[in-house]
Amino acid sequence: MDQLPVFELALTERGRTWRWRVCTTEGAVVMQGSEGSRPAAKYKADRALFLLLLSAPYRSIRLSTPRSPEYGRGLEPPKRVAPAHKK
5-12 long-range contacts, Cβ below 8 Å, gap at least 24? Predict the structure, then answer.
């Protein structure tokens, strides 16, 4: 079986800003950015890693149920009708 990629998060303080990076274990930078606070940088790094893993080509497990055969055949969803106003 092929090895799945492994990523690391790195946070470094540069003056008044915090720089974040998502790297491979070999050190290649995949995504990077900077924020004004450490918690914000940590959040952005975690979010970047999540989005990276979410878009990975090896994600073959479908967590949602399959759609019905009618989906995507140009059928319009039911129209919403506004309730009648009372006088």
Answer: 5/56, 7/49, 7/52, 7/53, 9/42, 9/45, 9/46, 9/49, 10/45, 11/38, 11/41, 11/42, 11/45
pTM reported for the whole predicted model:
0.62
Cα–Cα distance for residue pair 46/1, rounded to 1 Å: 27
Answer whether residue 2 is part of any domain.
no
Number of domains present in the structure of the chain: 1
Residue-number span of the structural domain to which 22 is assigned: 7-54
**Range 63-84 average pLDDT:** 57
